[in-house]
Amino acid sequence: MAEAEIKSNTQREIQVEIPADIVARETEAVVSKFQKLAKLPGFRQGKVPASVVRNRFSEDIKSEVVESLIPRYFRQETEKQNLHPVSQPRVTDLHIHEGEPLRFKASFEVLPDFDVTGYEDIHVDKPDTGVTDEEVDKTLQQLREQNASFNAIDDRALQDGDFAQVAFSGTPKGTEGSAAEGQPVNMDDVLVEIGGSNTLPEFTENLRGANPNDQRTFEVTYHEDFSDKRLAGKTFEYSVTVKGVKQKHLPELNDDFAKELGQFADFNELRQRVRENLEAEKKHNAEHEAKDKIVDELLKRNEIAVPESMIEHQIDVRLERGLRALAQQGMRPEDMKKMDFGRLRAGQRDQAEREVKIALMLEKIAEKEDLLVSDQEVDREVEALALQAKQPVEAVRNRLTQDGGLARIRSRIRSEKTLDFLYNRSA
Questions:
Q1: Per-residue pLDDT averaged across 337-358, rounded?
Q2: How far apart are CA 426 and CA 115, in angstroms?
Q3: Would you say the C-alpha torsion 272, 274, 280, 283 has a positive or negative sign?
Q4: Domain of 402, in residue numbers
Q5: Most Cβ neighbours (<10 Å): which of 297, 307, 378, 397?
Q6: Partners of 151 in the beta sheet?
Q7: Mean pLDDT of 385-404
């Protein structure tokens, strides 16, 4: 028998009693197992009397009985009361004595009982996604820049507009071990535009007039707000060797350029493809922005109590994603261990809570509007993951089945469908 107590909108506590005869049978089964495995002086393995086992391993037997019975009867009692825990139970007031029922209290979190209202009349403005000729021309110019060639100049020194092909090393200046010290910077082959808008003035001033094989040494002091945080606020001494003088050549925007870029018959086809891509990008961005506004409005119109365990799980997800990105950028594991994870978790909390609320609301709307996800839609996602991982589809499916990944995929697709549903009716 169990009695549920409502602690809050998301907290429940139940008292569970397991009959003495069931506890006794489970105890006998554990004692029998210990008899087969126990190795005690004076007894052959498998021949240790039950009384000796009970006396020698009493606490171990009791722990195994508890570990076996509590999860099973906790699950049974929550199912009987139609409760759906979203956290592991916290067990208290454990009572276990020979010949008596096993009693305990279990506190746990459940999904809140809530409804989502006001989503039927949410309207958002959809901006114009048309593309101007000027935008097309700008993108074509960027393509020219990306496909520029650099020709060697042998008969003169570097001047504004040229590109210096250089190798350099940068050594941080400051007291060893101080905050001013940084990591050395080394580049074997890089192009520096003399007088370029993105070129540091010190590089332009010291390289202007240099010839191939010339060397220059100079200092650069970076502003505190410099974009590269490894350099911000520090002074570096650079030793630069000029390997060559280059002049940039931009290709002509013509049929030959279009053919070199890809499967384009002529320049007009390239221009049309650029326009289509820009339109698709604008449409995607506009849709993303509109969906963000829809979600913001849903949050304003509906208040949901969120289980703490779901927030903590989402914080874990966000941190794992962030650490994976840092690893891909080259951060070393030993540097990651030095991070203040308490501060990082606190910084992720508000966004994690927002994401959980959004997920719960979209799931509720999907239920109300009978928005379903077919097995075929899930299969397509699994096949795409298998292709990306270069693994057999069934191997990926089995792994996702075991770790709950299939359910997460289905839930994500359903959320995307729900957002599409809200977006399409918001016009």
A1: 92
A2: 20
A3: negative
A4: 369-427
A5: 307
A6: 247
A7: 92
